[in-house]
Input
Amino acid sequence: MLAGIALIAPKLFKKVPPSATMARLQVRTVPAGATIRVNGKIRGTSNFELEDMPGSYQIDALLDGYQPASATAQLKAGSAVPIELTLQPLAQTVRLVTDFNDATVALDDQAPRPAQDGLVTFDAVAPGKHTMKLLSRLGQAQLDFELASGAAPLLGAPPTVTNTSAMMVSTFNGQARVYTTLPAAKVLVDGAPAGDAAPGGLQLTNLAPGTHEIAIVSGQTQVKRVVQVGAAPELSAFFQSDQNVGTIVVLTGEDGVDVFVDGKKYRNQTARGGLVRIQRAPKEYHIRVAKPGFGSSPSRPCRSPRVTRRSWSSSWFRCRRRPT
Output
């Protein structure tokens, strides 16, 4: 008798562990549109939902024109948990530069401020519509403008001027808009042609952070001014008479630096990125800078530009300080 043998070879399957439970987090910001970094890596733009393994995470929100906001979040399995970050706008600065030696400047209903070396600066100006007035025995001007959080200052209309020419530069995050009261004006940026200054201003883009020379040419009249481009919105207004006075711009890259003009210590130190502006009659001056803990610079000649009806400008003096 033959016996049949049946061979049974059962198949073995590897047991698959249950999938790990993911956690979700709703990331919201005020205002929306901020870049969101999670543990240092960009993960999205608010408002959005983050999905990741349970655990502790560092959430950072970044938006141009606003201070960064951060929070630590615990992601747990289950329904999405919301987290909201409120971003505070960067303080906006408004400055006026003039060669009127008796000038006073008023912002809105504030008491007029006397110009120091031709400069008046208003820090942390609130968003909204504002009016700035320049008063002098030789000329007057009124400028209406509007500030908004996370945006460049905007001029509502050309300024009203009497016995003065005006140039305004609005800057924010690599962009600028140039306005002027001079007719048929052409704009140059760092010596390169940029376009025509229309009544509504000329928009400039892709400007590197730092200082730039903005020039305006209108017929035989030439204007050159130095402006700062950074992450915070700024409005710079320049009003010039026909006086024969020039401006020396000293740029050191350090705040709190002493400046010496022909061996005499200037009353103001560098500030706001290592800058100081000095008004002087046109001639050659010797400039030296010094700061404790830094190497002293040798005295160097610098000429204050001649300013006539056809030209008003600034001379640059660059000196980078190095620690000793």
About this structure: The chain has no helices and 31 strands.
